Amino acid sequence: MRITVMPLRSLLLVLLMTAPVMAQESATPASASEAPLPEFATLFAGVRTHQDELESLRRKYICTMQQTADELDKDGGSKKQTTEEYEVFFLNGTEVRRHLRHNGKELSPSDAKKEQEHVDKEVADLKAGKKPKHGGDVNLSVSRLLKLATFSNGRRIRVNGRDQIFYDFTGNPKADTNGLSDEIMRRLDGTVAIDEQDQVVSRLEAHLASDFKIGGGMLANVHKGSRFTWTQAPVRGEIWLPETLDVNVDGRVLLFKGFQGAGKQRFYDYRKLDATVRILPDVTKVSEEEAKPE
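Structure for Organic solvent tolerance-like N-terminal domain-containing protein, as requested:
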């Protein structure tokens, strides 16, 4: 998942943007299994392992992502809305995007050519082992969050015919962090849902438990209560992958005061990469060796 803090139009900014709300599902606690909950340590060991595997296997898939961003007025109404569409895939653990459409319109031939050249260069750099230049990005990993929070109040709820185990979580102030992304995740409180059968995170709802500042508040001051909801779903019965992400940010971003923004990302049309598929025009084929998980 890649979140860029500088472009205002992304509006997902310092909070989360990549790694997804599914249509609200009907939760029916009364019909859930009454069996005892699995032992917490065993369940979470399996979840962490499976989530790490999923984040590695994402490199074998390409999808389309639609990103809608709203700049809100003080009453919560939309002042300006923009929609962008991208083709998205992962290479060497880094998300790569090719811009397809702006507000429903295809890029002009000249802009499309520039975009393709930019993507080709980024792919070449990543294959050469060069680090991406997204220095201001925030990369939030579900598997990492599971290691930076404490969990309580486990309960089983049946959702769309599948047993889900829900836990409340809060960021652990004593957890060791490594960089900006970890610092943000350590300030999150919320609820996580785990698909009991597949032992993967199916839904994550979180909010900032305290204000978060960058550059002493000069670059960003995201207010307590800013929130997001992320979900992933099974794709073709093979793998769980991100489906949608909803974000609502309240605060001061860059030099804009009293900023409020809301955004949604929807991931769809997943296709599997193999030795016969080209990732993008003018980009070399993905070899079988490259398609293997790390």
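Residues 8-291 form one domain.
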